[in-house]
């Protein structure tokens, strides 16, 4: 069948080229119109308990797209007209920002922060600084005193040293456009930023806005990596076909993938450009293998009019199986990610599988078809020959594999893999460092985040809900309020939780106010009736939306909002474990606790999904790979044999991630899954060439020599080129892209080493029947090496 496919493609090369060119031109129009954006809803595992709680209560207690702005002075305190005027201007200006939740803008200049006072005339609740700024020094002093005696403001919204204050604002998840919000908020801040006050801003809309901000730099890095790839291919392969055909394979696969995904309505996530580069590297790799095999066949064929067609047909026929197996393995290993309930990973899976599948057209078929048109295949584009240096590496590989050193390589590889595997058990799920792992620690966003966390209780929030929809006024009851109070004291013992707030913190203020501010009464009432009365009084002087931070309109559900100083995976897991511990040890007669909303609640859900599915996904990907190899080579031994380079590359890569503190999160999971397929691609070409030589009657020694000097040359060329190109990502302003580029380079290095040294040695030692046939039983010494034919 493979021979017939190769014969048809070369015989009908004009038709094949014309059809592929036409489809490429059509799809290029759709590819140019694909959307490049981040959709927050796609990051949520909608069926997870925490996400369901978040979706139900986010409009009341705050969503996960909260932005925090800090105004900070170096001298004096914030109680200056010039400083407070900036706070007021930004607070009012936020009302005009896209997708803003008008009821979730909180600052000194908003109506949300109030002071409750009681006198003989009655109980009064009034905003601290609204609608106007303090008119004179006395009014400013009174504002300062009001802040200092209000624990709901002093600490949470004004720093303890009085040198900073916060503005918080939430956005409607389903409407937020990160790039738009990022530019609008920065423009608003720029209007009031005259250098006298340090203004810092954080939050997911700002974080992903920074990702889009660096998109032009990312494109420049893509172009630089492309330029390095082209220069290296031109230097090493010394032919124009070795330069342009791998480039064309990468471009065609990108056009087809983006065009098809545009037709399917799938947008392009900026962060997954690393995955795109990884897949494109496979297109270059497959194409280089075919070009290299074409060059080998040209050397063996006499010059003639049909030389290129014959060499192209042989290259297509001989490399069709390993090429297609590599493509299918990459696609299948990536497809297991679709089992995750996270829409972003599911859409990314579709994009990746489509992209990988296009390599069948762009590299496996198009490259040999175009090679068949070459008229003078024996010429070289420049006299500089770098290949002798690479052949020395291949000679070393042959020497190692055919000598007793092969046992040392296999033994050391086993020890290294076991050690790396044990070390990789410490790989963290979720973010592994404070701040955002997407940006470098010295990035402005992470610096702003650290500064706010140093002065306040924490930037990132989680809310836990206590209630029952069928029980109105449940939160007014003594049991619910005491449970909230006890829960807050318990959870705040975790150092990473900077503070918490609930309605149980507000009622003591009302209670003390009714008794002329006597601090002895700064506590909840002793009975449910008293607490209910306090809440009724608070409700009577509140405006619509004032209580929504703490309870819903029927008082059936109340929230406890926790402030976190970091979003590391271990911090979130510890907090969730402690919350569950408290719930289990403090049963309620009425109502129940619901976990968990806000940004930290959503991240907890994502981390739990990744933790539960990570081992399953890796195991399933390995199983898929084993089944594919078993079916293609009709041998269960093949399935086990080809798992060896995959296990080596993945264990070493996971160990590196553990060492560098790179967590397994929603951004790194796709790269890890695709890496399973990447780890075996090179091995397919080596093993298949050995099988081909054995089938032609060569001895095992000669077969290994020929495979390493032919397919091995393709491996070492593509590996060296792509490793150098991916290392360029280390200069990226996005830490995630830099680390993933380094991760790709490690994967490629280990995969190339495994293909050149480990796999031939393992094949020579084990003599698998699917490669050697019945000759596998012959002792190694009985076979005499055949004369070596240079590639």
UniProtKB/TrEMBL annotation:
UniProt keywords, alphabetically: Cell membrane, Membrane, Transmembrane, Transmembrane helix
Top-level division of the source organism's lineage: Bacteria
Keyword Transmembrane in annotation: yes
Occurrences of domain Membrane transport protein MMPL (ranges): 57-298, 570-766
Keyword Transmembrane attached: yes
TM region positions: 14-34, 218-237, 244-265, 323-342, 348-374, 615-633, 640-662, 668-687, 708-730, 742-765
Coiled coil: none
Record's bilayer topology term: Multi-pass membrane protein
Primary location recorded for the protein, binned into one broad class: membrane
Pfam families: MMPL
Cell compartments where the protein resides: Cell membrane
PANTHER family reported for this sequence: MEMBRANE PROTEIN MJ1562-RELATED, MEMBRANE PROTEIN YDFJ
The protein's name: MMPL family transporter
The organism's taxonomic lineage, starting at the top: Bacteria, Pseudomonadati, Pseudomonadota, Gammaproteobacteria, Pseudomonadales
